[in-house]
Specification:
single chain, about 290 residues, alpha/beta, 11 strands, LysR family transcriptional regulator
């Protein structure tokens, strides 16, 4: 019969999150040898490793990926049992690991987190900002509890919940020739120079969908930050599809001009991502309620 301890589960989960025994030991306030022994004893009881060792880093193998969500659930349920047993059921605490794609993380973070943080100040929010593809991958491998992205995500293990409507604008520098056109038509974009986000970004995917509706142009630059694209466009290096929420100030000050393109479909949905097999503890359920 297995006799895996809570400490062993904690070490396993923290190594899975951070990739090394040293990092797990630091997080749990253990010595590195103690953390190593806990992992070794758990693997001995399982009669199988849960990590592949590669160049000093530990990566979950297939067995580890299968067991990680169960280990996380056991730890969360144990913590919840302790709160309820001590009469503190209404006081949420612990960590919540949230991923946000760039538009959400940089321009809508107050909208995403504000209500929850005000209601549950004892819960520590660990926010990771990356592109939609990276956030979806992190939800899949359980390194994030929940994600919020602006791109379409299709995977049988991911539940997608609509959150907000969002839209892009085609932006140019004030002296760009297209800003002088009174009635823009698709043919006016022939040969246009475009500044795009990197592959894997939802803004890139929406931009490419729009470009398919226009004559051929030229991609002159790929950048992985919206602010960098705004600077490039303002400098006259090209035009770009940018989230409306990200360019409000630049439009108001005249640094950028939004081109009128009713013939382009630049609308999209912001969505909450959840792993279908993840245990949804009290903190996660409270967060989901706050963004519903």
């Amino acid at each position: 019969m297995l006799n895996v301890s809570l400490r062993q589960l904690e070490v396993f989960v923290q190594i899975a999150m951070h990739g090394s025994v040293r990092a797990a030991a630091d997080r749990l306030h253990l010595t590195q040898p103690a953390a190593s022994m806990a992992l070794a004893e758990m693997e001995r009881q399982l009669d199988a490793p849960v990590f592949d060792r590669e160049r000093g880093r530990l990566h979950l193998n297939a067995r580890g990926r299968e067991l990680l969500p169960l280990a996380q659930e056991l730890l969360e349920r144990h913590a919840e049992f302790g709160r309820r047993a001590s009469g503190e059921a209404l006081t949420l605490a612990g960590d919540l690991r949230i991923g946000a794609s760039n538009t959400v993380g940089n321009y809508r973070v107050g909208e995403l987190l504000g209500d929850f943080v005000r209601m549950y100040p004892q819960v520590a929010i660990r926010l990771r900002v990356a592109n939609t593809g990276d956030i979806a991958a992190a939800v899949l491998d359980h390194s994030l509890d929940v994600g919020c992205v602006e791109g379409p995500v299709t995977h049988p293990l991911i539940e997608v919940r609509p959150w907000r409507d969002d839209g892009l604008l085609v932006c140019a520098a004030p002296d760009h020739p297209l800003t002088k056109k009174r009635d823009l038509k698709p043919e006016h974009f022939a040969g246009a120079r475009w500044v795009l986000r990197e592959p894997g970004s939802a803004t890139r995917a929406t931009s490419e969908r729009a470009l398919m509706q226009l004559p051929a142009g030229e991609t002159v630059m790929e950048l992985d930050q919206i602010e960098a694209i705004k600077q490039a466009v303002a400098a006259g290096l090209g035009i770009a599809c940018l989230p409306e929420v990200a360019v409000t100030d630049a439009l108001a000050t005249g640094r950028l001009v939004a081109l009128k393109t009713p013939f382009l479909d630049l609308q999209r949905k912001l969505s909450i991502l959840l792993h279908r097999e993840k245990y949804r503890g009290a903190a996660l359920e409270a967060f989901l309620q706050s963004v519903s």
